[in-house]
Automatic annotation (TrEMBL):
The lineage of its organism: Bacteria, Pseudomonadati, Pseudomonadota, Alphaproteobacteria, Acetobacterales. Belongs to the TPP enzyme family. Residues 433-561 form the Thiamine pyrophosphate enzyme TPP-binding domain. Pfam families: TPP_enzyme_C (PF02775), TPP_enzyme_M (PF00205), TPP_enzyme_N (PF02776). CDD domains: TPP_BFDC, TPP_PYR_POX_like. Residues 215-338 form the Thiamine pyrophosphate enzyme central domain. The keyword RNA-binding does not apply. Keywords: Thiamine pyrophosphate. The keyword Nucleus does not apply. It comes from the Bacteria. This is Thiamine pyrophosphate-binding protein. Residues 17-119 form the Thiamine pyrophosphate enzyme N-terminal TPP-binding domain.
Length: 566
């Protein structure tokens, strides 16, 4: 039986259930979507959603997908994602993608249903120490003890998820708290201006202006995206005639890839980063943790004699790993707005030198792009589609205005190489390293962009971690095109092992647990079972037409591309 308007009104007056109070707070915070997968302990919240048309429940079929959908939504919408998991088991299912969100500093308000607190003394089924489970992956975790606490704790969660460094927070919601009645006033959201301007900007302007033109590199970290500061970074680079690099293992490319000063992302090994920075006397890092390394190599990524200057809203990251002559705490966009005129004045006496340095950066970018096109030309007629060709054709088909969510590790470096867009928010990537993020993140990204088209690039192995996201895309009718790059193996791992000459695997050419071909996985059947149209592509010339047709359909689609292992 449908809930009546009188029942809805009664719930919004004195004596409302805790679940109704929670939803009132969410509505006032501007929440549009609740991402979740319900179980018994979440049923009070599900029941309270009756008669609330402004709050839409986005059903995912497994909690790992729930978390990544909320992550993709938050990154695309620029506001916290709200999600509701199923007690200890569901929280456990979601932990991999919750760790991804933590590393990416995605603002999430994570909740999970908890057993009735009056029941926990008997060690019932579906009970667990949710706060302890969540704590390693969130900024803070707390259990709500009474319905009267909901306004303070829920609003605190929204505020703290956005405060630098942004990231997930967690609230445990016992069933009895969700059923408890209260007449507490939910209040209204706080207005918090986080546009703090860093101190020391005149000193920073002088220091940057004194660096020999052509000997400074700018690194635009993920924080540039959160601060919406791409235009300011480009203006700084123009004044200094400096190349702009992206982070070594990014969550976003927060800069226009069509900009003539864009120099691509840093490599992921310390020795390779140091080699890239060898020609510079200093780096200007905007945002923290931009030089993440994966595999160990001897030495620091910052070569001796290379000074590190930083601006970040996260005070903990400044000087954390690398000594710095000057780093400033402040919002990147607000601080660069003040820095720009100071920098313009400080560099004026050497304007011709900075202009010449800029021209050199522009020429170097043109040379790199020509080399990339040459690489594609050499492999275009390979019998099996080469990864570089697949990435080139996919990017060409997508164009500059469609959002890309990338979890196809075998082609990701090539994909970033061919991007050419003036939209600084086009590209997002798996920063946390736990697979199963990309497909559900693309679903969330489409919702965060107002149900706009999104293309998800995913490896064949990664596609097996959260395939349930395909169902949610079909259920919601979202225009997401999933592109599976299928080399039928864990290619990145094999590549690493081949490089280890002391490994028995490398010497014998035998790699255990790395092939996905016996039996082969039928991604077409998988897509069909979840309600999507799909196509299998084995020729380079068919890639762009297939993706263009999928995007033009306005429906979710899956395109599988068989690629080589080189």
């Amino acid at each position: 039986m449908a809930i009546t308007p009188l029942e809805v009104a009664a719930r919004r007056t004195g004596g409302r259930r805790g679940a109704d109070i929670l939803l009132e707070i969410l509505e006032s915070e501007g929440v549009r979507y609740i991402f979740g997968n319900p179980g018994t302990t979440e049923l009070p919240l599900i029941d309270a959603l009756q008669g609330r048309p402004d709050l839409k429940y986005i059903l995912a079929l497994q909690e790992a997908s729930v978390v990544a959908m909320a992550d993709g939504y938050a990154q695309a919408a620029g506001r916290p994602g709200f999600l509701n998991l199923h007690t200890a088991g569901g929280l456990g299912h979601g932990m991999g993608n919750l760790l991804n969100a933590s590393v990416s500093q995605t603002p999430l308000v994570v909740t999970a249903g908890q057993q009735d607190s009056r029941h926990t003394i008997s060690d019932p089924l579906l009970f667990g120490d949710l706060v302890s489970i969540a704590t390693p992956a969130v900024k803070w975790a707390q259990e709500v003890l009474h319905a009267d606490q909901l306004p303070v704790l829920v609003r605190r969660a929204f505020n703290d998820s956005m405060a630098a460094p942004s990231g997930p927070v967690f609230l445990s919601l016992p069933m009895d708290v969700m059923e408890e009645t209260s007449d507490v006033d939910v209040g209204s959201p706080s207005i918090i201006n986080r546009d703090s301007i860093a101190g020391g900007l005149p000193e920073l302007a002088r220091a940057l202006a004194e660096i020999t033109p052509g000997r400074l590199a700018i690194i635009a970290g993920d924080e540039v995206h959160g601060a919406d500061a791409a235009a300011q970074v480009a203006a700084v680079a123009e004044i200094l005639g400096a190349p702009v690099y992206g982070a070594s293992w990014p969550s976003r490319i927060p800069f226009a890839t069509s900009c003539s000063l864009w120099a691509g992302n840093m490599p992921t090994r310390a020795t390779d980063i140091a080699h890239r920075l060898a020609d510079y006397d200093a780096i200007f890092a905007l945002g923290g943790k931009s030089l993440i390394t994966i595999l160990y190599s001897e030495g620091s990524p910052v070569p001796p004699g290379c000074a590190v200057y930083q601006v970040s809203a996260d005070a903990r990251d400044l000087g954390r790993t690398f000594q710095t002559p000057l780093s400033l705490v402040g919002n990147i966009r607000a601080s660069l707005d003040v820095l720009l005129p100071l920098l313009q004045q400080a560099t004026q006496p050497r304007r011709a030198e900075f202009t010449a340095a800029r021209d050199h950066v522009i020429a170097a970018r043109a040379s790199r792009r020509a080399e990339a096109e040459g690489l594609v030309a050499r492999h275009r007629d390979d019998p099996v589609v080469a990864p570089c060709v697949a990435a080139h054709e996919v990017v060409r088909a997508i164009g500059p205005r469609i959002a890309i969510v990338d979890e196809a590790i075998a082609t990701s470096s090539y994909t970033r190489m061919f991007l050419d867009s003036d939209w600084a928010a086009q590209y997002s990537f798996l920063r946390g390293g736990a697979l199963g993020w990309g497909m559900p993140a693309a679903v969330g990204a489409s919702l965060g962009l107002g149900r706009e088209p999104v293309v998800c690039l995913v490896g064949d192995g990664a596609a097996l971690y959260s395939p349930q996201a395909l169902w949610t895309a079909a259920h919601e009718g979202l225009p997401v095109t999933f592109v599976v790059m299928n080399n039928r193996e864990y290619n990145v791992l094999k590549g690493f092992m081949r490089g280890q000459t002391h490994y028995i695997s490398a010497r014998e050419g035998n790699f255990l647990a790395m092939d996905l071909c016996n039996p082969p996985i039928d991604y077409q059947a998988m897509a069909t079972s979840y309600g999507l149209d799909s196509r299998l592509i084995t020729r380079a010339t068919d890639i762009a037409p297939a993706i263009e047709a999928a995007m033009a359909s306005g429906r979710p689609n899956l395109v599988e591309i068989v690629i080589s292992t080189i």
